[in-house]
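dumping this here before i forget
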Amino acid sequence: MMFALMTAILAAITPLTDDQRTAIDTAVDDRDHRDSAFVSLLETAHTWTPGPGSAAVRLDVDVTALLADPDAHRGVVHRIEGVLQDSELLPEPYANVAVWYLRLDSGEPVAVYVTDRVALPDDGERVEVFARFYKRLGGTDRRGQSSSWAAFIGNHPVMLPGPTGTTIRTPVIVTGAVAVMFVVFGALLVLARRSHAAQAGSRPGGGTTDRDWDGDDPSLPDDPAEALAVLRARAKEDGHDAGH
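structure:
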């Protein structure tokens, strides 16, 4: 499967030492995090700093490949983006480490151990984080069923706009609502004018023209100057009729 590489620009990711590489290779899949590989990856993630870096980063997270052959991908840096489903702080001696359960856009869940984080974000937050692949993590999901996750260890996560892009779409939705409101208002105004015209034409004991209606004259032009010219012409016409 094809994958993309990039230069990490959000965190300066330090390379693994020989000792750390040796320790990572001892990771035991389908178990919890309590092994020497976990400690080594935490140590290297703790040294990462925000800012430009030069580490090669895999952009796609191929969960199927990671779970099928963890040894082939252990320690590889990934850019992970997903929606936070759940999070919790680990007990001592890892009280400054939290595990975040993210759901990728593909729908697949992953677990990311984030170091140097004490405050937990809200569920539903969209997150981007750079992290090294740790192992295939075994455990029990919320339904009590055995499950496996691709587990990573990283640092310096970034909170992104909402999972469905509501921050971007909101102005478009508001503009559309305002446009609809104006259209409805215009339609109601036209109906109201027609209703008044019909009532004036059928009013008993009075005139039968729109000019007898005490209110806005629906026959007048919308332009003020043109409307004034029409009124003046009517006044002259009425004066001429009265003289005869």
